[in-house]
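User: Teach me something about this protein's shape.
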Amino acid sequence: MNVLRMVVAEIGYRKLNFAVALAAVIVAVSYAVSSLGSIKAHQVRTEVRVAALDDEIRKIAVGMGFNINVLPAEQNLSDFYAQDFAEKTMPEDYVHRLAESPLIKSVRHLRPALIRKLEWPEFNRQVVLVGVTGVVPLTHLSNPKKPLADPVPPGSLIVGGVLADQLDLKLDQEVSLQGHTLRIAKIQEKRGSKDDISIWVDLKLAQELLGLPGRINLIQALECNCAS
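Assistant: First, the predicted structure itself:
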């Protein structure tokens, strides 16, 4: 008698035991399959919720703005806090070196800036000039985030809310800034800070106006717990 016949004979002799054992196996397999399906469905729901939370966090971060200021190494912090901008400058390339560094884990949305007081002779007024670019992407990340701030297009100007009221400036109005014709692309809401009397332009234009080609005095960044 071969093994197969022995197994069949044993099953025939112990029909009840075999039926119970078979039922137990079927129940166990069914439970395992059902559990795997439930786990997969829960994982999908979790991923959807995490994505929604990540988007909410991004929206909150947008409302809060940048929360890290990277300054030139030689900058005196007392002077920075007193003037609200750095007198010292650093190469614009520093922001790209930071963006390419794999050591950067919890910092996102790097944006170079050049901020100085500037005479606006066409309006006989001193303003705070803010030259910026778009956010520099972190090249070593596979899941880049949506930029926290948009660039100022060349030929455009963004004006603080109080300054716009004082100078009677309107959206889409063309103005001259030290001989450069610019269109007002946006008027900021009043914030109760120096932003209210600031103007934003493309970084290259700010560097030209201030005679500081290739230089910046601030890297704005957002620290967030989103390295993954």
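Now, about its shape. Residues 3-61 form one domain. The mean pLDDT is 82. If you'd like, I can walk through any region in more detail.
User: That's plenty for now, thanks!
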